[in-house]
Amino acid sequence: MTQERLRIQAMRSSLVGPFDLSVAAGECIAISGASGSGKSLFLRMVADLDPNTGAVFLDGRERGSFAAPAWRRQVIYVPAESGWWSEAVADHFSDLAAARVLAARLDLKPELLDGPVLRLSTGEKQRLALVRSLLPASPVLLLDEPTAALDETSQGHAEALLRERLQAGTAILMVTHRSDQAARLSRRRFVMAQGRLTPA
Amino acid sequence: MMPSIVLTGQDLAIASVLILLDGAISVAYRLGLHRQLAIAAGRMVLQLLLIGAILTRVFDAAFPPLTLLVILAMVALAGREVAVRPEQRLIRMGNYTVGAAAVAFATGITSILALTTALRPQPWYDARYAIPLAGIVLGNVLNAASLALDALLGSVVREKAAIEAQLCLGATNRQAMGRLLRAAMRRGLLPVVNSMSASGVVTLPGIMTGQILAGLDPMEAVKYQILLMFLLSGGAGLAVVAVVFLAARRLTDARHRLRLDRLARAGPR
């Protein structure tokens, strides 16, 4: 399985880069590094949320040939801190039935989906944000500390879910501070320092 | 029309005793306001005397370019007021351009509409009508535009995570910011709705009161006030839409990003 899914070429902003990286289908890349080193900026640039130059390809097709919203439906960024734009949890899910299935696999009580966002804990928010982003089954996932607020059991269940996606061919770029997690999910690991990525 | 009662300098001097009363209250209760009060009262008198003198000249000159110049100066000042209210500022003088453009657009359309259809002075751009009308529309439009701009800029900063969460899932900038744009427009329009529903019951509008004091028949004054209210609400609507869309355009780009890097917090004034 060596088909190239995502290729990043000389991607840079005024703050960080340049970055060059090729990610195969079904591959998970783990990125670690001190806070403020530019890990989140890097993921945001791949998702085209921050202005940047250089080229990014998805399955050989250049990012500029996608409308930005279409690109972000394929290359989904999940920030460390989740955002909620409506009071009801259910409003945040395009497919509520599918969301319930995934939520149950992440040990979330089913009634959470019918309640208000205000009543969610940090860990519940993080898992629901992951559910929200997994629903479209995108070819690329950009995960920013996806399990930081989770206990060990939930973390294991989240990793199992991600492993399924990898087997289905999704490419994952993941920022994580847990070297055990990086070891379980990824074969290649990188360190971000002073806005540059180097193999660990 | 009844003859209006002409005020003399002596009449004003007697009324100014009330300002001295305010000063005495400030001293007695140690409010620390007497200095500011004296300066504000002095400024008010000077500013109004000055504008009175200017208006007399401009009305007598009956020279359209001069009228236009006065109105443009008023628009520029109103644009500045809209710009400085919000705590957040669009960089590169964005607040000023957005504020002035919105205010000029809304005031221009409503004032010209009123002058050419309802009031119809001869000529329609007669300074005696155009300047006071533009002034009162401006004051109101300024209020609506500054509230809407403040609400929008404040909310995009507060709700950055919510906006970007939608962008991350493939929403367009319009979809992701729509709720905040609507809330900002509502915020800008509420005072107009309030003042319309309260007028005549809770308050006697200032213009109407002035006209009645100046000797106009109450029914005539009321008709003027109704016309004015329609103008003000129309002007506020146009201003709110213009300011929100102009500002929103600067807060995003062709790649549907949220560009908070184009916002800066206002420094201490």
TrEMBL record, chain A:
Keywords in alphabetical order: ATP-binding, Nucleotide-binding
InterPro entries: AAA+_ATPase (IPR003593), ABC_transporter-like_ATP-bd (IPR003439), P-loop_NTPase (IPR027417)
SUPFAM superfamilies listed in its UniProt record: P-loop containing nucleoside triphosphate hydrolases
GO molecular function: ATP binding; ATP hydrolysis activity
PROSITE patterns from the UniProt entry: ABC_TRANSPORTER_2
Residue intervals passing through the bilayer: none
Residue ranges annotated for the ABC transporter domain, each copy included: 1-200
Key word Ubl conjugation present: no
Pfam families attached to this UniProt entry: ABC_tran
Protein name: ABC transporter ATP-binding protein
From TrEMBL, chain B:
Membrane topology: Multi-pass membrane protein
Keywords associated with the record: Membrane, Transmembrane, Transmembrane helix
A Pfam family assignment: UPF0014
Subcellular localization(s) per the UniProt record: Membrane
UniProt KW Transmembrane helix keyword: yes
Any one Gene Ontology cellular component term annotated for this protein: plasma membrane
Ranges annotated as spanning the membrane: 12-33, 40-59, 65-84, 96-117, 129-153, 189-214, 226-248
Family of the protein in this entry: Belongs to the UPF0014 family.
Protein name: Iron export ABC transporter permease subunit FetB
Native organism: Limobrevibacterium gyesilva
Gene designation: fetB
